[in-house]
Amino acid sequence: YAFFAYLLMDSLLNGMEEMSFENIRDLETGNIQIVHSDYWEEREELPLENLVYLDQDVEESLKNIDGLSGISPELRFVANLNNGIDE
To answer: Is the dihedral of CA 47, 30, 28, 52 positive or negative?
Structure first.
């Protein structure tokens, strides 16, 4: 019985691990990233300059890509939060 219990648990854990990687890939990362050419020079600082706006022309040209299932804009930026107490 121990072997079958091990086999069952190993299969369940491997399946859950694979599902978690699929969720991260499908829900948290994009397959296509469109940025302004000047963005790459300062990408580590996450600048808000040189943004690409999702207008009708960009959206229409993206919809013409075969296999594209969805379009979702994303904005990453750095912010400082201050509660005013620890100044």
So the answer is: positive
